[in-house]
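2024-03-11 09:14:02 INFO receiving multi-entity request
2024-03-11 09:14:02 INFO entity count = two
2024-03-11 09:14:03 INFO echoing inputs for audit
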Amino acid sequence: MTELVATTPGLFPLPDWAKSELSELKGRQKVDLISGDESEPVVSAYERARAEVVDDQFDAGLDRIVEGQLRWDDMIAHPLAVHENVENGRISRYYDNNNFYRNPRVVGELTPSGDVASDLSAALELFDDAAPLQAVLPGPYSLADLATDEHYGDDAEFLSAVAEFLGTEAESFPSHETLFLLEPSLVTNPPDDDLAAAVPEAIDVVAEESDADVVVHTYFGALDEKTYAHLMDADVAAFGLDLVAADREQTVYNAVEYGVTDDVALGVADGQNTLVESAETLRERAEWFIEQVPATDFETVYLSTNTETFYLPVNRHRAKLAALATAAGLDAEVTT
Amino acid sequence: MVRNPSNRVQFRPDDHDTEHFLLTTVVGSYPKPTWLSLAKTRAENSDAAFDDADLREAYDDAARVITHEHERAGLDTVVDGEMRREEMVEYFAHRIPGYEFNGPVKVWGHNYFDKPSVVSEVAYDEPWLLDEFEFTAGVATKPVKVPITGPYTLARWSFNEAYDDTAALAYDLADLVNEEVKGLVDAGARYVQIDEPALATTPGDHAIVGESMERIVDGIPEDVRVCLHVCYGDYSQIYPEINDFPIDEFDVELCNDGYEQIDVFRDPEFEPDLALGVVDVHDAEVESVAEIKRNIQQGLKVVSPDRLTVSPDCGVKLLPREVAYQKIANMVQAAREVEAELDAGEIQTAAPRQ
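2024-03-11 09:21:47 INFO inference complete, emitting structure
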């Protein structure tokens, strides 16, 4: 019997009042972005915003609660952006979007930071064991891809160092049920032959430090065959796959051809479009995938947006969360 | 196919001193006077004795001041600095049935954009820019250029809930732009600039922009100058394709990276007129006249002087106002000095195309 779990990859839009309040408190320029040593009023604003997005997830009825990653001004590059041995360089385009982040230049050893753990603990205090906590981190390949290495000197060594760093972060997390590792770069800028085999090893380094079910979540399209095949070597509970992107047939092909994890996360709701899909549509998209991969009887299927949801206005973001929760709760008979 | 670039001659002032003429213009936006922001804030406060009519007066005053500021800088063609527009997509989306707004979304850091959603077929209702044009033309002594956000950018920088793809939405929007341009032309507009910054981020979509331009110029007389502005991208990915676009002028930002890409446009031969960015809009240091003259000569590597327009790289609204003014004033002076040197045979150029 497959369990359907409604969740998200995190990185939510700030509530509108927090957009205004924080832009007033912090400023709007590059130098004003998050540094890791925020003033008390800024900390307070983020605390209130965090409480609101946690409530939103309970209101929606999601099965996993994320912290929301509201402090991640640089999106998934955040864990490096606040690191003491990283200098934030030029503003760069965030994937193929009209969004920008500070390119982190790693100039020293990636020592443990604890920044993400601290936010997760703060979130957990808000709801304790009322629902399972889901942690979110960038995957090691994507974080290395978004950064510039000026310390380690070699792509493989840098990837390994980023993985070790993320592992130490995960190790310090409070108790969590699920860990999403966000790996869009595996799609948009796949590893070359020299690095491809090192990617699953790097993911394992992070995953080993968490007791949770680890989901390697990919988006902005389908993985190429070679990257997918290598990724099958990773010892994780689930891959996250983008079923909204136009090349989703490729995703099905990969799963049929190379197999798939015991659990799977399906990006069925479009995190980059305000059109709110009905719960039935979301279920149909999930079943479209599951039925074509008949060899696998998934234990858990996570229903999620394909991407982070900070691209959306708040009202549509909330509506998508509600639709996902409803989709996971629909009687299977309705759509099969 | 290019349209009729020689229509530039209508913008040559009657009293122009030199035989050579480099058309001087701007891309569009200009820093707003501080008091305009205060007026807007005041108009939003229902307790303040400052109503919509007062705000309209403030917009008119700002448009008049900035149009005259452009004239004082010596420009051959002027804009009102887009005083009535806050954001290049939002402004038009508010005027096009089919769009709705759901709230701000992040661009970067704490900079947000009220990114609209297209929720049904787009349509043309009231004119978008007619009042703006008629007011500016009424207070200007120079010809007025009208910048319009292009259909591809309007499509690409919106959420598309209603159309199968970006192309289908862009083509419908292009038909609306065509209707708008026809209205502007009827009102006397002779210089229209289509802004397509989104093309720089997705250059593979150049064919959509080309087809959109075909729709935009349909039925537009050849004496109306049509410019296409694309900024901050890898031009090698859209050139030479733009040679096939039905435009008179292609406006590029190249000063920003020190003309690293200028050679892109030298082979094959550049077909439309070149409007070249000769001052950097992201650097608050005002370029000297001598430096701008050198920048102008970069354009002469691509086209002969009779086909060269000079402008800032992009809209100047992010600069301090006095910096914006001085850059434009220096730009015009540089153009006039280059013209004189061309007359005197002191600058070697390619021969004019016959």
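2024-03-11 09:21:48 INFO post-check: Strands of chain A lie at 3-6, 86-93, 100-106, 134-138, 148-149, 178-182, 213-217, 238-242, 263-269, 300-305.
2024-03-11 09:21:48 INFO post-check: Chain A has a mean pLDDT of 95.
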